[in-house]
Amino acid sequence: MRCWVVGRPGPIASGPLRLVERSVPEPGPAEVLVEVEACGVCRTDLHLAEGDLAPRHPEVVPGHQVVGRVSRRGPGADRFRVGDRVGIAWLRGTCGRCRWCRSGRENLCPDSAYTGWDADGGFAEHTVVPEAFAYRLPESADAVATAPLLCAGIIGYRSLVRAQLPPGGRLGLYGFGSSAHLTAQVALAQGAEVFVMTRGEEARRLARGLGAAWVGTAEERPPEPLDSAIVFAPAGSLVPVALEALGRGGTLALAGIHLSEVPPLDHARHLFLERDLRTVTSNTRRDGEELLALAGRLGVRAHTTTYAFEDADRALADLEAGRFGGSAVLRTGS
Predict the structure, then answer these.
(1) Domain tally for the chain?
(2) Nearest-angstrom CA–CA distance, 262 and 258
(3) Given CB 3.0 to 4.6 Å as the disulfide criterion, which of 148, 177, 253, 290 pairs with 302?
(4) Can you tell me the distance from the alpha carbon of 49 to that of 22, in angstroms, rounded to the nearest whole number?
(5) How many CA atoms lie within 13 A of 291 on its CB side?
(6) Is pLDDT above 80 for 289?
């Protein structure tokens, strides 16, 4: 099979991804082999390729927003049948025994493992996943439109929950890429006012089209105090900016796995009046199930730019340069 691997991490212009040939992997106990139809392109994949996240093993295959069909079952795997449509997300394993797992907070499990980081992911024609961490998808699901929901959608949903947006409240989104444009749709459908701060004109155009109440640059203050905000951009410099935009009792959630250095915070300007600062760490499987159900009920749909499988390196370069709005997806299957 063909797959993309991270060779020597470095700037995307240096070509850290390589297209190689490998044998189709064999599913182990309680695992299934998935023939990949489409895989979303996430900023985490860019961080991995460029070395902001150190690969957990040499020549790992990135990609953790996978839609495909079960093509083979490993020993003891009985949750899915061959031919079933499934989704694969970022979280791919936990211990199931620690206090975090037992209390419904498996995203904090010290022994958690991740698709496209600890194990090979979906920038490939086939990939393997533990059946307990795969999502059942409807036969009618469009592979390209569904793929971004499996990380961008799930993490955006968890970030929205962590941001404690009150009913009908004002939500600020800093950065408006794949995750933010899906989160905005959920918030708008639930009656929120959404204020978007982002640098790209294409992203600003998309935000207006989706119904944002106000759209500006990251340096601009929204016209009204925010009840909640989420920083999606990997820029620590936005943390004090977003905190200052919050009203009394507001909450800021930081959505990314990687963030540049956060400047010093001033208590009076940034944190006083019971402003809360919260982080987001991965997701639970329950988050994924809830988001997929919610997206179907509310009509949340990814705005996608589709790339041929052979153009994965170009997709990451375009992501870094902000050349598209919404989500990028590699189409692998026919």
Answers:
(1) 2
(2) 11
(3) 148
(4) 19
(5) 31
(6) yes
Contacts of 183 (CB under 8 A, 6+ apart): 156, 157, 159, 160, 173, 230, 232
pLDDT at 101: 98
Whether 96 and 159 map to the same domain: the answer is no
**Whether 136 and 160 share a structural domain:** no
Closest CA to 3 of 122, 151, 133: 122
Whether residue 55 is contained in a domain is answered as yes
127 and 241 part of one domain? no
Q: Which residue has the tokens 């936005």?
A: 238
Return the H-helix or E-strand segment holding 17. strand 17-21
pTM of the model: 0.94
Q: What CATH number did the domain enclosing 210 receive?
A: 3.40.50.720
Q: How far apart are CA 52 and CA 50, in angstroms?
A: 6
Domain range spanning residue 192?
Answer: 154-279
Which residue type is seen at 257?
Answer: I
Which CATH number belongs to the domain containing residue 47 in this structure? Answer: 3.90.180.10
With a CB cutoff of 8 Å and minimum separation 6, the contacts of 223 are: 195, 214
| Alpha carbon distance 165, 145 (integer Å) | 26
CA distances to 47, 219, 240, 277, 312 from 263, rounded to whole Å, are 21, 15, 7, 14, 34
| pLDDT tens-digit map of 178-198 | 999 999 999 999 999 999 999
| Alpha-carbon span 15 to 50, nearest angstrom | 9
148 burial (CB, 10 Å; 0-12 / 13-18 / 19+) is: buried
User: Within this chain, do residues 129 and 60 fall inside the same structural domain, yes or no?
Assistant: yes
Distances in Å between the alpha carbon of 189 and those of 153, 204, 301?
14, 19, 12
Distance set, CA 230 to CA 37, 125, 244, 254 (Å): 31, 34, 13, 6
Tens of pLDDT, residue by residue over 224-279, are: 999 999 999 999 999 999 999 999 999 999 998 888 999 999 998 999 999 999 99
The answer to whether position 198 is within a domain reads yes
Three-state SS for 236-276 is CCHHHHHHHHEEEEEEEEECCCCCCCCCCCCHHHHHCCCCE
Specify if 253 maps to a domain: yes
